[in-house]
Write a structure and sequence with these properties.
It contains nine helices and twelve strands. It is α+β, with helices and mostly antiparallel strands. The chain has two domains: 153 residues, Aminopeptidase; 135 residues, Gcn5-related N-acetyltransferase (GNAT) (Aminopeptidase).
Length: 319
């Protein structure tokens, strides 16, 4: 690799260039995953993420041409493994020069180090998005021993779009005082979902206090003081509302509660006049049949991306 490349970490001074690169990649890779500089600046302050040790920035002169970002879950997966999410990208004009390989080397090494510190003795699962078929990241991952473990389908519904069923009057709008009750419902709902870990109080609070969270279109179903179902919404792109979490407590499944919350959230999005579309992503093998639920209220698939994993034994602790 050319000595001209400068390696640093992501910081407040680089978020503008970082946003420019991620948005260029969103178009080039057809993922439509757009972020503003303010969104990315907020990521630098996430609980459990140290940008000095868990991020990488690759510069060619004044141009940010590659980046990497690591998140290691604070809680173990249901089977006792530690999940490490590896993210990043390389500018299309700088690919084929070894930058992606070096980023993966750094991400994997740090993932083992942090996993050994955070979850001593736990096996490690490295997870990376394989994006769409034909993306150049797939041969890179497969050459490093990663395999496709799951597919996730992005879905979209226009608003107002086709007529919606009437909203159920028993569905309530989300309020800040419900944060902890919704967290407990979420942890119960997702305890059986592939690759999910329990949300800590601090991380959950940060998520629902973020600049992207939209409480006015988030909804809950409450009975006897417990949140049984919920829909939480976010916005990263003007005119697009994103449904980030939909769940039902295991004991309340089969009653249509999540669908009722979803319909209410769609009504709220439409009535606000701020959105042209509502988007979400669903595990294509979701055991609760979520894909069919979304189709029943007018969502249609737009793209399907692969999630790659590599399982490793417990990493050795630092000497």
């Amino acid at each position: 690799m050319s000595d001209a490349y400068r390696w640093s970490t992501l910081d407040d001074a680089s978020v503008g260039a970082w946003a420019e690169l991620t948005n260029l990649l969103a178009v080039a890779e057809r993922t439509d995953e757009f972020y503003s500089a303010a969104d990315l600046a907020e990521e630098l302050t996430e609980t459990g993420f140290d940008p000095v040790r868990d991020s990488w920035a690759v510069w060619d002169g004044p141009d940010l041409v590659g980046y990497g970002q690591l998140r290691v879950a604070s809680e173990l997966l249901e089977d006792g493994r530690c999940r490490a999410q590896l993210d990043g990208g390389v500018h299309p004009d700088w690919r084929g020069r070894g930058i992606g390989t070096r980023l993966m080397d750094a991400l994997e090494e740090r993932a083992r180090e942090l996993a050994a510190h955070r979850h001593p003795g736990a096996p490690l699962q490295l997870r990376v998005s394989g994006r769409l078929p034909g993306d150049p990241v797939r041969p890179l991952l497969e050459g490093r021993g990663y395999r496709i473990a799951r597919y996730f389908t992005d879905m979209e519904r226009m608003v107002p779009g086709d007529p919606l069923p009437p909203a159920d009057s028993r569905v309530q709008r989300y309020e800040p005082g419900l944060s902890e009750a919704v967290r407990l419902a979420h942890n119960d709902a997702f305890a059986t979902h592939w690759g999910s870990t329990a949300q800590s109080e601090r991380a959950w609070r940060e998520q629902l206090e973020s600049r992207t969270f939209r409480p006015d279109s988030s909804t809950v179903w409450i009975e006897d003081g417990d949140v049984l179902a919920y829909v939480l919404t976010y916005q990263w792109v003007d005119g697009e509302l994103y449904i980030g979490q939909v769940g039902t407590r295991q004991r309340a499944r089969g009653r249509g509660l999540a669908r009722a919350c979803l319909v209410a959230s769609l009504h709220a999005a439409s009535e606000s006049g701020r959105y042209a579309s509502v988007d979400l992503s669903v595990d294509s093998e979701n055991p609760t049949g979520a894909g069919a639920l979304y189709e029943s209220v007018g969502f249609a698939a737009t793209r399907t991306m692969a999630s790659y994993v590599r399982d490793e034994p417990p990493p050795a602790p630092a000497s």
